[in-house]
Amino acid sequence: MAFDGITIAAIRKELSDALTGGRVYKIAQPEPDELLLTIKNNSTQYRLTLSASASLPLCFLTGKNKTSPMTAPNFCMLLRKHIQNGRILSITQPGMERILNFQIEHLDEMGDLRTKQLIVELMGKHSNIIFCDENNMIIDSIKHISGLVSSVREVLPGKDYFIPHTQDKANPLEADRTLFMERVFSSAQPCFKALYTSFTGLSPAIAHEICYRAGGNADLSTAALDEDGRQALWEAFSRMMEDVREERFSPCIVYEAGGRNASQDGSSSGARPTAPAEYAALTLTSYPTALRKGYASISALLEDYYAEKNTVTRIRQRSSDLRRIVSTALERNVKKYDLQIRQMRDTEKRDKYRVYGELLNTYGYSAESGAKALTCPNYYTGEDITIPLDPTLTAGENAKKYFEKYNKLKRTFEALSALTLETKAEVEHLESISTCLDIAQKEDDLVQIREELIESGYLKRKGGSRAKKVKITSVPFHYISGDGYDIYVGKNNYQNEELTFRFASGNDWWFHAKGIPGSHVIVKSKGGELPDATFEDAARLAAYYSKGRGNEKVEVDYTEKKNVKKPAGGKPGFVVYYTNYSMMIDSDISGLKQAEV
Q1: What's the CA gap between 509 and 587, in Å, rounded?
Q2: pLDDT exceeds cutoff 80 at 303
Q3: Can you give the residue ranges of the NFACT RNA-binding domain (predicted)?
């Protein structure tokens, strides 16, 4: 989700409370489009990140420092000359625009007090950081925008600064009921779209939330709302804008179902291999409480949200080569398996040819010379059967021909019976690796998957066969059931094998999604009987960490570990078992607590 006006309003309040009156102690430019300001105020030192990145514009307080280049860029040097040691007078947001204006007081070369403006525009690809004097003349900017790039506004030294109005949107903080009705219901369109296209600073997520609070369907056309529905939408909108005016912000991140148990105090008890779904400066009540993680600070939210997003993006990038290898091999083996199955179907007629040959040896004497068929009793079924004949051959020669066909198909069947099993096992193995790639959360998790692909011959080890194996640091997931039992989940096939055959004892319980790739789940039984709730917790984990994740119900097999065996020559993590129980379960693990590593 990109910054919207309400998020900027929450940031403005937080920055204003923390930084107003503070001194700009240090100015750094660690990236071409990013500033890091160190500000001292009320005996506290703050770091403020300002990023005008086209893909990820940001503004928040952070506790982290960044390495700066040896030679400071020109824009950084200019800011140091003018506003280093300057005092922040105010931080404002014009209307509900995605803009923050820092008014900074400083002494000029003559020792006179002067005021400058550092304007941060957080507008996606149009983001910029602009430095102006007290008369709104641009001194410089982190990005120069000429008339060749933009016909709306030039951002160059010496030009006047103004906010471009490219869209006819109203300020939601100033809207009354009459303006609201005119704007939102002027044309027929989905309610949520009518909201965010009519007013500045509203994102689609906030528009959906307003519709939810109004008790309506966000996708319902505005033309379909009756007077009560329109009034409910106005009241929900009005109450939310009142929260913004009164600065009653409640930042939260929401997660996809099944991944995290997050409470409003900011604590979280689960882990997920995917990024958070959404965030906002106000509580998104349209999501269940269990999927919301609340924050006291919008800066802390933004730092966590984008850190998680960056982690997931990095893992996907790092695993892309592995995914490509697995996908290519899987596609090739699936085609190979389909071809073998078709060839197997062709061998089904082999017994018919054997019967033809035997019957011709028995009744061939009755066949007329040059006949194209012979009808005779089938002593296997007791019914008459018609056998096609080659009229140029004798009955004995026809029988020999059928036996040759039978023997050829028999040999093909015997060869394919083994080959199809091998190919099917390879397909299942590759599907399990694909699932492991979906589960991977850290770069360490990819190491074992890469090692498995090397051992399976899909990858070559860097440095050749003499190269040392890489050190494995990835460990299985560790959860605590509601009843306090330890539950372990393998992240890949090697960990599955380790958990099942080396870590688990005979009376521990083993869980796995039935008939689909997934993790082995081990519950340490502590030598006693497990509560029913713990069985369900472990089954949910087996469902979640499998290819069936997201399905309404997943069938999960479970049995004591002593009933699980490793087949001879089986792939890593592949097992057989003949005594088991099964249950249908959802894949929602939001109520489970993950143990600290």
Answers
A1: 19
A2: yes
A3: 477-569
- Structural contact between residues 542 and 435, judged by C-beta atoms closer than 8 angstroms: no
The per-residue DSSP string of 137-178 comes to BEEEESS-B-TTT-SS--B-TTSBP-----S--B-GGG--HH
Per-residue model confidence as pLDDT tens digits over 40-80: 999 999 999 999 988 788 899 998 888 888 899 999 999 99
Residue with tokens 């400083």: 106
- How many Cα atoms occupy the beta-carbon half-sphere of 159 within 13 Å? 15
Question: Model confidence at 125, in pLDDT bands (50, 70, 90)?
Answer: confident
Pairing verdict, β 113-121 and 99-107: antiparallel
Q: Going by C-beta distance under 8 Å and a sequence separation of 6 or more, which residues neighbour residue 219? A: 190, 191, 192
Give the separation between CA 127 and CA 237, rounded to whole angstroms. Answer: 28
Cα separations in angstroms, 576 against 427, 489, 544, 581: 17, 18, 21, 14
Record the tokens describing residue 175, joined without a space. Answer: 């809207």
Tokens of 300: 């802390």
Report the C-alpha dihedral over residues 583, 588, 591, 592, rounded to 10 degrees. 70
Phi, then psi, of 41 in degrees rounded to 5: -155, 130
> Counting beta carbons within 10 angstroms of the beta carbon of residue 361, is it exposed (0 to 12), middle (13 to 18) or buried (19 or more)?
middle
CB within 8 A of 234, min separation 6: which ones?
177, 180, 181
Torsion of CA 319, 321, 323, 327, to 10 degrees: 180
pTM: 0.61
User: Which residues face 104 on adjacent strands?
Assistant: 88, 116
Cα dihedral angle (267, 19, 24, 143), rounded to 10 degrees? 80
The whole-angstrom distance between residue 574's C-alpha and the CA centroid of its chain comes to: 27
CA distances from 246 to 14, 89, 243 (A): 13, 21, 5
Residue 312 has pLDDT above 50, yes or no: yes
> What is the number of H-type helices and E-type strands within the chain?
12, 21
Terminal alpha carbon distance of the chain:
30
> Is the pLDDT reported for residue 260 higher than 60?
no
Condensed to tens digits (0 to 9), the pLDDT of residues 446-483 reads 888 888 888 888 888 876 665 566 666 678 999 999 88
Distance of alpha carbon 82 from alpha carbon 69, whole angstroms: 20
Map residue 384 onto helix, strand or coil.
strand
Q: Which tokens belong to 60?
A: 């928040």
Of 432, 441, 64, residue with least CA distance to 275: 441
Amino acid at 415: A
Amino acid identity of 336?
K
Contact of 503 with 488, CB cutoff 8 Å: yes
Q: How confident is the model at residue 589 (pLDDT cuts 50, 70, 90)?
A: confident
Contact between 10 and 298 (Cβ < 8 Å):
yes
Report the alpha-carbon distance of residue 584 to residue 580 in Å, rounded.
14
